[in-house]
Amino acid sequence: MEYLIRRFNLNARLAITVHDEIRYLAKDEDKYRAAMALQVANVWTRAMFSQQMGIDDLPQSCAYFSAVDIDHVLRKEVDMDCVTPSHPTKIPPGESLDIMQLLEKGEEAVLDSSVKSSDPPQVSQYAYTPREPVMASLQASLQNDSDHAYLKAQITGDDKELRKIIKEMKPPVKKA
Predict the structure, then answer these.
(1) Euclidean distance between CA atoms 139 and 130, whole angstroms
(2) For the chain, how far is it from start to end, CA to CA, in angstroms?
(3) pTM: predicted TM-score of the whole model, two decimal places
(4) Secondary structure (H, E, C), the chain
(5) What are phi and psi of 68, to 5 degrees?
(6) Beta-bridge partners for 87
(7) Cα-trace Rg, the chain
(8) Is 51 exposed, middle or buried (0-12, 13-18, 19+ CB in 10 A)?
(9) How far is CA 54 from CA 51, 79, 131, 142, in A?
């Protein structure tokens, strides 16, 4: 996200992260472009993790955030009124946009490649080193079916099957 902010001259910055939420502050004129940058950053992140699992085609169902909330106040949900004893006036709602709604914003959401940055990221200073996918290295270490037992045990939802897998993992007891 930092790369995209600098690359496309977005007037935005990280405000807070809490568990699975990320909050950025952005100028009103950059709100849709910052939302698009969040979606792009998410696609890159998901693609990296998918590739490491040996999935070279990122499923569209998990590529984008379900929605990016755009609001002018800090609140849990963009549609909460935020009425309190000390503030009885309802606060107008913000927006919650999925990728399709964001694309419908047109020019307001475009990360324009012709934008010249005043502080461009210097990516050329970093050498690219291709990484072997985690699953590829795991596959290389799995020599026979008994080596798959650990993986099978992790995905089983049946106690009977789990006991069978554990039994198969144990070496046979030699009688004296």
Answers:
(1) 18
(2) 65
(3) 0.75
(4) CHHHHHHCCCCEEEEEEECCEEEEEECHHHHHHHHHHHHHHHHHHHHHHHHHCCCCCCCHHHHCCCCEEECCCCCCCCCCCCCECCECCCCCCCEEECHHHHHCCHHHHCCCCCCCCCCCCCHHHCCCCCCCCHHHHHHHHCCCHHHHHHHHHHHCCCHHHHHHHHHHHCCCCCCC
(5) -115, 125
(6) 84
(7) 24
(8) middle
(9) 5, 39, 11, 15
Question: Where do we find the tokens 């990280």?
Answer: 14
Question: 3-state SS string over 22-37?
Answer: EEEEECHHHHHHHHHH
For each of the chain's 176 residues, which pLDDT tens digit applies? 999 999 999 999 999 999 888 999 999 999 999 999 999 999 999 998 888 877 888 888 889 999 999 999 988 899 999 888 998 999 999 999 999 999 999 999 999 989 888 888 888 888 888 878 776 666 655 555 555 676 777 788 888 988 888 777 766 666 76
